[in-house]
Amino acid sequence: xxxxxxxxxxxxxxxxxxxxxxxxxxxxxxxxxxxxxxxxxxxxxxxxxxxxxxxxxxxxxxxxxxxxxxxxxxxxxxxxxxxxxxxxxxxxxxxxxxxxxxxxxxxxxxxxxxxxxxxxxxxxxxxxxxxxxxxxxxxxxxxxxxxxxxxxxxxxxxxxxxxxxxxxxxxxxxxxxxxxxxxxxxxxxxxxxxxxxxxxxxxxxxxxxxxxxxxxxxxxxxxxxxxxxxxxxxxxxxxxxxxxxxxxxxxxxxx
Amino acid sequence: xxxxxxxxxxxxxxxxxxxxxxxxxxxxxxxxxxxxxxxxxxxxxxxxxxxxxxxxxxxxxxxxxxxxxxxxxxxxxxxxxxxxxxxxxxxxxxxxxxxxxxxxxxxxxxxxxxxxxxxxxxxxxxxxxxxxxxxxxxxxxxxxxxxxxxxxxxxxxxxxxxxxxxxxxxxxxxxxxxxxxxxxxxxxxxxxxxxxxxxxxxxxxxxxxxxxxxxxxxxxxxxxxxxxxxxxxxxxxxxxxxxxxxxxxxxxxxx
Lengths: 255, 255
Prior knowledge:
Two copies of one chain form a homodimer. The first copy, chain A, has 255 residues and is an alpha+beta fold. Chain A folds into two domains: 54-106 and 213-252, MutL, C-terminal domain, dimerisation subdomain (formyl-coa transferase, domain 3); 116-164 and 166-203, Ribosomal Protein S8, Chain: A, domain 1 (2-Layer Sandwich). Helix content of chain A is 50%, strand content 18%. Chain A has helices at 6-12, 19-53, 65-68, 93-108, 129-145, 171-185, 190-203, 215-226, 246-252, and strands at 70-75, 79-83, 87-92, 116-126, 148-151, 156-163, 241-245. Chain A contains nine helices and seven strands; from the N terminus they run αααβββαβαββαααβα. In chain A, strand 5 and strand 6 (156-163) form a beta hairpin. In chain A, the strands form two sheets. In chain A, strands 1-2-3-7 form a four-stranded antiparallel sheet. Chain A has a three-stranded antiparallel sheet with strand order 4-6-5. The longest helix of chain A is centred in the first third of the chain and has 35 residues, at 19-53. The interface between A and B is medium-sized, with 32 and 32 residues.
């Protein structure tokens, strides 16, 4: 789209025109895939360690699991309470939506589908020399997720476009925070930066604890979880669902 | 009402006409009250021992507790799932209704409000000599809860009226079963027999696990629990409610 930089298209899109560019593109995508896989593995591991704390948390749900749940209502505007087959199921609405949104963003990165909000007037932020240098190196990675940013003088960055859909924080401040972090601590790779950006965008785009969901919205979210890999684990490694077997509930009731 | 025997009215109603009858009536009512109190105490004790098993079961709920719950829906057609103030609350629909109904029946016993189903044709059942002798002794107690029964020859009982509202068993068979039990084992007192009858009538009149309740029916039941003493304990000493604090749920979700 008009909102994407040509540099990003040249590096990771499908417009590579020379064999050398083509090889570089394959390598980058292969690396992106490995990084994402490693991240998934860590998330699943973290969730499994949580599950051991959680009595009644079952194994990873079967295909079609979330669609089969009968939605009862929201608990504390935070959890979706569901009648499952032989169990009471609670779904953390934020973690669930975050997982769904992160997968959607990952699927769209660098493509024409990335939702970008072009700013009518570029927004400028103060920046250190290290941050400006960093943007010069990682500008293409930022563009993959919807940020268009460039140096504007020696101590200022101009932000021309931001990812659309970020509701819970100012996307400009989000970028500023990550740049400051990366300029001091660095990140293992551009891929890690892109992943981190996607996770932050997902986290700040989706419903949170305290958001009221209509039954239709809740059911739509549950259905989307079924189309998502690792749906039982949120991007921060927290469980998305808590399963309380009816047998355990009956025991507590003395039935 | 026409459906009550005059013997029952003479013994425990307000029609006592001599000082001796009046004293007997006071004594009987005082005893009934003591028996009911002792039964309550045993039920509460039994429920408390259950509560110790049940993590998250809180203390006896405050006044207005059940009305304040936001009803979400039925779980497994057995439990009413509710969003409480700071907790997830499950209510066992059968135990809850049984408790409400038992209190209602206790309040009505021997009064004009007892719902009686008079049989168009008396129903006869075979009976032992011991059972027939027993009916002669406890007929008045049976009348207090709606049974009208008398000997019909040497080996038969004629049942002329039964408590109304018993849905889940044949009230005639229920009486037959209890008479057989009492004729062999006996019961501490007529009061115990009346209590046992009321409990059986309540148990067989109310909703059970597997009954579908409309939201309106569920909410009406919750409201009635608030008008009931010992609402957190079913007549069989099982907990009526299970309380899962949100803090515990949040911990399990890693929040």
